[in-house]
Design brief:
The complex is a heterotrimer of chains A (about 375), B (about 290) and C (about 200). With about 375 residues, chain A is mainly α. Chain A has twelve helices and two strands; from the N terminus they run αααααααααααββα. Chain A has a domain of about 250 residues. Chain A has a two-stranded antiparallel sheet. In chain A, α6 runs antiparallel to α7. The radius of gyration of chain A is 22 Å and the shape is globular. The C terminus of chain A is likely disordered. Chain B is built from ten helices and two strands, in the order ααααββαααααα. In chain B, β1 and β2 form a beta hairpin. Chain B is globular. The C terminus of chain B is likely disordered. Chain C has two domains: about 100 residues; about 35 residues. Helix content of chain C is about 55%, strand content about 5%. Chain C has a two-stranded antiparallel ribbon. The longest helix of chain C has about 30 residues. Classes of the chains: A mainly alpha (about 375), B mainly alpha (about 290), C mainly alpha (about 200). At the A-C interface, α3, α5 and α6 of A face α7 of C.
């Protein structure tokens, strides 16, 4: 196999890894205002704040490592296809700026939320987490739809479509698909990783959003593959949709492991089908097919690709190994009583806790 | 201001800002790892308290270093796309390797460290902080290799067909003579920063009358650890900086001359220059367009 | 300080160093006739290189000086006296408040020197910075992103410094004498030690 093809596949793998992993933590963040409130039917009377902390703690040890898949995808594109990297990043400037702002705001909010014990502080951080989860979940769909369907690229490999050119109806539909798909993925993750009423509520919500997502995804995948698809990409897309339906079915039966695996496979195959449809282009031009960026004309030298292949073959399995082990180490469900009631004495402010929904007073660190 | 000036200012602002957190992260991860190891060895609760105290401050700083780092990686493509096209073949490789080897290590094991108290065995938990530190050091190595190529390009040729710089020798890029002095210089400077961080908070508590007297011996320990790190690393910075100055005057004479704002050439050099042929410099590339 | 420069660059107090004007003349001839390398002026902004170089070194040495002073003050086995003599002293208060910023800002000035000293090159001898910028991105777009980053980074700095000071002031939390974090001693009924 050509090295350029190998690298196309590796970059596809990195993006797929990014979406299947960060997909669920985006979903959990986006669901904070929906699932993170008290349910009157809850026999345990779990407070909204406890539920929010359960949700955030379920992704706590993982989100940061998940995000590195994006950084690696970016770096690998830079190294293996410099023209792809240059055209894409300079062309999709404003959406990427928004994604970056969202990821910055989100990362800081996740880490800082528990550091001050005040209801107002937490509300602000929650708003940042929600914004930081919804915006990229939406924009990645917009960006990838545009990449696969093609954008105006001129003879010197520069994107000339402007910002509004990216916001076409199909791309916006793509954004809604990734958003709803990630929300479903996130809800099923909460179902898998928490307990109590929250676990049940998440499952029910996941099924509802999943149905909407399935409908949107069918339309979106059909439009894209009618334009650019081949047998293989059609097949992958079809299996992706089937996997989503199976996931929702498993969720209904309360088989949470299967349900989450289902959306995992859905995202994997749907994104995979996009890359299959894209190949051998990496950024097709709508102005002139000859101006498209392809795996050939956008690639680095054989030397670079060769060295990078060796590095990737050695270290990707190692990364997969220790990252999977993290999931194993934190395999236990986060239950309501796992959330510690004491807060660090530095976190306490005049304005407190207890105010909105926690009964326990702050500052009980020994 | 035109796009060029703005892009330069943006790079300057975001890089200087990002680099407030980088040396703190490198230096502090080492010191927290040492503190936690000391606690494991001695079971002296003072070391555990220090581990938790500086560990908390470490995570507060790490969060910002991480998120501002993503901007750095994307910025080359967003604002400097012609640069990315021209050197992506060489410059992209260390960046990708940095992500694969270093960022995964740092981020995954930081998650394990933060949430691992009481959930993974203590020895493993301590090892996590050492792995985070290893990640930060590897990260520094690869990003500095990329930067050193910009200071002193090696291991490349200019492909006349594509007009781009292409890799000929990756080992040469990783062992660039600028890199071999810049890496120790930056690493020891980061240790200085970590040492100063610990020192600042510890001395402040020693100075403060409201800090309980029973805690003072603990902060004394931290102050000494920080101070020793600061001073020993400082010696490393001086030695590596000294060597770096000599390498730099060889590969970037303009920079060193500008450091001293010296405009005139001393006589002996002029004589030497006129004897030597300008061949070394006339090998600069001719661009055939993209 | 011509002798200092000679020493730093060549290791010899009498070593010869070429001035920027001489290098400029050579570079003009060497790099002419190529879009990627030709500019009028190959000299970096000298006030920036001159002062950043000095600030880097000065702040670094100052930081080391404070470190040595602390070591001197805390020398020996640590009688109560040695610690309390720092208490309330104006000098040590200032030392604590400023010592972090010395190596921290020395790092910044070091990088400003390295990167500004390389100008007008982005890759020394191969490509000038003016040819490296994205041709398809307008000034307005870059200005927008710069405003966004600067504002955002400003807010984050306030949050970060605020939290660091809060946690720094609170001091190290007290732990039980025999604290253990071995997971074997815990059951599913126990709360986690840390969650978000």
């Amino acid at each position: 196999m050509e090295l350029t093809t190998i690298w196309f596949i590796l970059i596809a793998v990195l993006w797929i890894g990014y979406f299947v992993l960060e997909g669920f933590d985006f979903g959990v963040g986006a669901l904070l205002p929906v699932l993170g409130r008290e349910n009157p039917d809850d026999p345990d009377q779990e407070s909204g704040e406890t539920r929010r902390r359960q949700m955030l703690s379920s992704i706590g040890p993982f989100w940061d490592g998940n995000e590195v898949w994006l950084i690696t995808a970016g770096g690998a594109t830079f190294a293996a296809f410099p023209h792809w990297y240059a055209t894409l990043f300079s062309g999709f400037y404003i959406p990427l700026l928004l994604v970056l702002v969202a990821l910055i705001v989100r990362g800081v909010a996740l880490e800082y939320r528990g550091k001050v014990d005040s209801a107002r502080w937490r509300r602000r951080m929650d708003a940042m987490i929600i914004f930081g989860s919804v915006v990229p979940a939406l924009l990645w769909g917009v960006a990838f739809t545009n990449i696969v369907r093609g954008v105006p690229i001129d003879a010197s490999m520069e994107y000339v479509g402007g910002f509004w050119g990216l916001l076409n109806p199909v791309a916006l539909l793509g954004g809604l698909v990734t958003l709803t798909l990630f929300v479903t993925h996130g809800a099923l993750f909460i179902g898998l990783k928490t307990d109590g009423q929250l676990r049940y509520d998440a499952r029910v919500l996941g099924i509802r959003v999943g149905v909407i997502s399935a409908v949107l995804a069918v339309v979106w995948l059909a439009v894209i593959h009618l334009e650019r698809g081949a047998v293989v990409s059609w097949a992958l897309a079809a299996v992706a949709v089937v996997a989503l339906l199976l996931a929702l079915g498993s969720a209904r039966q309360g088989r949470e492991g299967w349900a989450f695996s289902g959306t995992f496979v859905t995202i994997l195959l749907a994104v995979g089908s996009l890359f299959v449809a894209l190949y051998p282009d990496v950024m097709p031009s709508t102005l002139n097919p000859e101006w498209s960026l392809t795996v050939e004309n956008a690639a680095s030298s054989q030397k670079t690709l060769g060295i990078m292949t060796v590095v990737a073959l050695i270290f990707t399995p190692i990364v997969l190994l220790y990252q999977s082990w993290t999931y194993w180490a934190f395999r236990r469900r986060v239950k309501g009583h796992h959330i510690p009631t004491s807060v660090h004495h530095a976190a306490v402010t005049g304005e407190t806790t207890g105010l909105d929904d926690r009964a326990e007073p702050a500052g009980s660190t020994p | 201001m035109d796009a060029l000036d703005l892009a330069r200012w943006q790079f300057g602002i975001t890089t200087v800002y990002h680099f407030f957190f980088v040396p703190i992260t490198i230096g502090l991860s080492l010191l927290v790892a040492i503190m936690q190891t000391q606690w494991m060895r001695t079971r002296n609760p003072q070391w555990l308290r220090l581990t938790k105290f500086f560990g908390k401050l470490f995570t507060i700083n790490f969060a910002l270093g991480l998120v501002t780092g993503i901007v750095q990686e994307f910025q080359f493509g967003m604002n400097w796309s012609d640069y990315s096209r021209f050197v992506g073949d060489i410059f992209g490789a260390p960046l990708a390797i940095e992500a694969l080897l270093a960022f995964f290590l740092e981020s995954t094991f930081l998650g394990l460290w933060i949430f691992g108290w009481g959930r993974i065995p203590e020895k493993l938990h301590t090892a996590c902080m050492w792995l985070i530190h290893l990640g930060t050091v590897l990260s520094a190595y690869f990003i500095l290799a990329a930067n050193s190529f910009m200071q002193n390009p090696v291991g490349y040729w200019i492909n006349p067909e594509t007009g781009r710089a292409e890799l000929t020798d990756f080992l040469a890029v990783l062992t660039n003579k600028v890199q071999l002095v810049a890496f120790p210089h930056v690493l020891t400077a980061a240790y200085m920063t970590g040492g100063a961080f610990v020192l600042a908070f510890a001395v402040w508590h020693l100075w403060r009358t409201r800090t309980p007297q029973s805690d003072k011996p603990m902060y004394r320990k931290a102050a000494k650890l920080g101070a020793w790190t600061l001073v020993i690393a400082g010696v490393g910075v001086i030695v590596s900086g000294d060597v770096q100055g000599k390498v730099m005057s060889e590969v970037q004479p303009m920079k060193m001359a500008a450091a001293e704002a010296s405009t005139r050439t001393t006589p002996r050099v002029r004589a030497r220059r006129s004897r030597s042929s300008p061949s070394a410099l006339s090998m600069a590339p001719r661009r055939s367009g993209r | 300080m011509p002798k200092l420069l000679s020493y730093l660059s060549t290791g010899d107090l009498e070593g010869a160093v070429e001035g920027v004007n001489g290098i400029q003349e050579r570079y003009v001839q060497t790099y002419a006739g190529n879009d990627l390398t030709e500019v009028e002026d190959y000299r970096p902004l000298m006030p920036v290189t001159y002062w950043s170089f000095r600030l880097m070194m000065g702040l670094g040495f100052l930081g080391m000086g404070i470190g040595m002073a602390v070591l001197w003050r805390l020398r020996g086995k640590g009688d109560a006296d040695g610690e309390t003599r720092m208490e309330g002293s104006r000098w040590w208060g200032w030392a604590a408040a400023t010592v972090l910023f010395m190596p921290l800002f020395a790092n910044s000035f070091g990088w400003i020197f390295t990167e500004m000293g390389r100008q007008p090159w982005v890759v020394m001898g191969l490509m000038t910075t003016q040819t490296a910028v994205s041709p398809s991105v307008g000034a307005g777009t870059v200005a927008l992103s710069m405003v966004v980053y600067t504002a955002l980074y400003g807010v984050l700095a306030v949050l970060m410094v605020g939290l660091s000071l809060r946690y720094g002031r609170a001091g190290a939390e007290v732990v039980p004498e025999d604290a253990s974090y071995d997971p074997k001693g815990r059951t599913d009924d126990d709360a986690f030690v840390f969650t978000y």
